[in-house]
Amino acid sequence: MDTHIIELISTATHVQWSVTIPQYFFFTGVSAAAFLISSLTYVFDNKTYEPIAGLSLIVAFTVLLAAPLNLIADLAQPGRFYSLFYHLHATSPMSWGVFLLTSYPILISLEMLFVFRAGFARRAAKSTGILRSIYTLVALGNIEVTPATHERDHRVGRILGTIGIPAALAVHGYTGYILGVVRARALWHTSLMPVIFLISAMVSGVALMIWLTALMVRDKNGKIPWNILDGLGILLVWSIVGDLTLRLLWYSIGFAYSFGIFQDALPYVFKTHFTESVVLEMGLCLSFPLVVSLFGPLRRIRPLFLFTSLLAICGVWLFRWDTVIGGQEFPKISAGLAEYVPALWGQTGIMEVISNWAIWIVFFIGLTWIMPWKSEPTAESDLTSGINIESAAVTAKGAM
């Protein structure tokens, strides 16, 4: 008589998506938020944030360069990532994401060409040789800086920025959509998930811009522009309020009106992971920054304000972790919970996330060094600048 050994595999013992996926979700969210901040100036003509509009656009572009590297690392065969471009599935949010991640950076790069064209034109006029040719090329072959060219650049930049707003929302919204359509994951399956991801992305994007503004932007007196940081602090308040409100709706409706599986999942979030989800994420990293940013006297304690902004960044990353990894730890079927501890090394380990941050920093430093992102002269002074640039171009040509 033959003896057959049947191996029963519990689907609760394995986590498919590793730590690289929360990192990917986090970076795409920062990109969307930073782009929206830049659009306050380039689309809606809000002069308050003009000194950081170019910097925000660079942040939106560079994090989007680093973000897909996490997806490549998470693939079982990273070398086959190119196959995603010719396997189009109209009903798959993941397939949509491939084309969004391709078209959205192109859109941002086109907007940067027009937004920074005047700055490149000035550099071209002051340069000689190969540098002048390069600057002329990225200035779209036109080194004039006049009110007419300023108006044209502004108009085209506004059109591209207007198109980019829904594109930015789609690029990050689809990540929440990916989770929301998965019926088998109790914590994910809600139509609120894309909106929750978008609002929490605003928290991380605004908080990161607070830090970058404090580090890189100075006013005419060489001091940190605290008026801009105060404005960003108010944006941070509204973002955190929206984030916490959506969480309340998500958890309360799910617990009170959903059927068994979601009601079983919530105690797992609020008991098993009470420290991470409630104390750290919603308490220390969201509610505490909310209080500090909301009240002017606390916000004017500048080290405290910057510290709580850093906490807000950490809180959003932790939310991505709790949602992606926590949603997989709760089983589809069978008893028991999965446990996931990321490895230190390897293509899906902690060092990959640290390396991804390092890659973004390299991209960011490189583009802020190359791009003329600082505020340009007003249109009234551009007329004089245009005359000076033409004179400088003639002088540079004679020196060659």
Q: Secondary-structure map with pairings?
A:
Blueprint: H1 20-42, H2 50-66, H3 68-74, H4 93-115, H5 117-126, H6 129-138, H7 147-180, H8 193-216, H9 226-257, H10 260-272, H11 274-294, H12 296-299, H13 302-329, H14 350-370, H15 379-399
Helix pairs in contact: 1-2, 1-3, 1-7, 1-8, 1-13, 2-4, 2-14, 4-7, 5-6, 5-15, 7-8, 8-9, 8-13, 9-11, 10-11, 11-13
Largest sheet: none
Number of helices: 15
The CATH topology annotation of the largest domain reads as Formate dehydrogenase/DMSO reductase fold
- Gross morphology is globular
Class from secondary-structure proportions: mainly alpha
Helix content: over 70%
Instruction: Output the CATH class name of the largest domain.
Output: Mainly Alpha
Total E-strand runs: 0
Give the uncertain stretches in residue-range form. 3-12, 378-400
- Total count of domains: 2
What is the beta-strand fraction? under 5%
Gap between N and C termini: 94 Å
Order of helices and strands: HHHHHHHHHHHHHHH
Radius of gyration: 24 Å
- From the coordinates shown, what is the CATH architecture of the largest domain? Up-down Bundle
Average predicted local confidence, pLDDT: 84
Provide a compact summary of the structure.
With 400 residues, this protein is mainly α.
